[in-house]
Amino acid sequence: MKITTGFHVYSKDVPFRSCLLRGFSCNVFAMTQGHETWLVDAGSGLVGRPRKIVASMQEEGLDPSSITRILLTHAHPDHAGGIGYFSHKCNPAICIHESEEASLKGGTKHLWESEAIAARGKINDFYPAPMWLVHSFARYSIGNTPSVSNIKLLKDRETIKGHEHDVVVIHTPGHIPGHACYYVPDAKIAFIGDLIDPSFDRKASLNFPSSDYDQICHSIQVMRELDIEFLCAAHASDVIHGASKIRDLFTGTLEVLRNARETTLAMLKERGPMRLKEFAGHYPKDTWRLQDQVCVPFAVIKSLEKEGRVKAENGRYRLIETGIS
Predict the structure, then answer these.
(1) What is the pLDDT of residues 184-221, one digit of tens each?
(2) For 2-254, CATH number?
(3) Considering Cα of 57, then 249, then 253, then 259, what sign does the dihedral take?
(4) Interior CA angle at 267 toward 304 and 196, to 5°?
């Protein structure tokens, strides 16, 4: 589907149906660069997802053999699983932020690379099932990130020169440490991956044990300062159009994050030492669902620990009163 001149979007999947039938994926975006085509993310590699992208491109008059670059927002398999298919077909440069290089080679394991971090809050609070079962379901539903050789590592604020559009790399950690967004200044279009999921109510993607509250707040503030007319998120149903609407989304998401911090602090003050799973259900369910209800307070607690305001004791977290809100 055309977004604006030279930019297209493909492949949004229905989450639960996709997981049950395999191939949970993300939106894949294409931009024309003269005789070349660049993709942002590649989607899942399962059950013919890449072939569906190719078919959609051909329907819109784009030649899949012209793909010369794939700009990955990060290496999770629902974003990078399709790179094996495209590498075999047209050998594009696989571009990713330099801090995500090791994760690009880690496949599904990357989803739980922070098991040591998760263990601090009792890992079963995050995944109420044996880890072998969690890994098996992930491999079934979203697959792995395949190994490829044509990798180009990107730096924060690097400009990738194109025949029609230059693309600026913006390192936006928070969802995971190596996450990046891509901004096209002349078209005023931004590809934000999993920074925010507008399908929910102003949801910042703090849905892994390694997610970082302070980093994602800063990343959203960085993106809010850009002049954006088209906001392209990995799991949104639609591209968001309009600078004021986009800025309101960023501002509202920061407000939701602040509210999550206040909720966490209030619960610790009222209830005393708590386990992570005891926080679940106390955050707005229209925004934070399932695993978010544990990962969000954990991200907030890690931030409070850095401030010296929370201390872990025997699997519980205790507030250290300082008079600071």
Answers:
(1) 999 999 999 999 988 777 899 998 888 999 999 999 99
(2) 3.60.15.10
(3) negative
(4) 60
- How far is Cα 310 from Cα 84, in angstroms, rounded to an integer? 44
The listed range with the strongest mean pLDDT (4-18, 132-146, 287-301) is 287-301
Classify strands 151-154 and 93-97 as parallel, antiparallel or unpaired.
parallel
196 burial (CB, 10 Å; 0-12 / 13-18 / 19+) is buried
Question: Most distant CA pair in the chain: distance in Å?
Answer: 62
What six digits make up the tokens of 125? 């609070």
Under 8 Å between Cβ of 126 and 291? yes
Task: Decide: 196 and 220 in contact? Cβ < 8 Å.
Answer: yes
Q: Are 220 and 253 in contact (CB under 8 A)?
A: yes
Beta bridge pairs of residue 38: 31, 69
Confidence (pTM):
0.91
User: Please, which residues bridge with residue 71 across strands?
Assistant: 40, 95
Phi then psi dihedrals of residue 311, to 5 deg: -130, 135
- 61 — alpha (psi -120 to 50), left (phi > 0) or beta? left
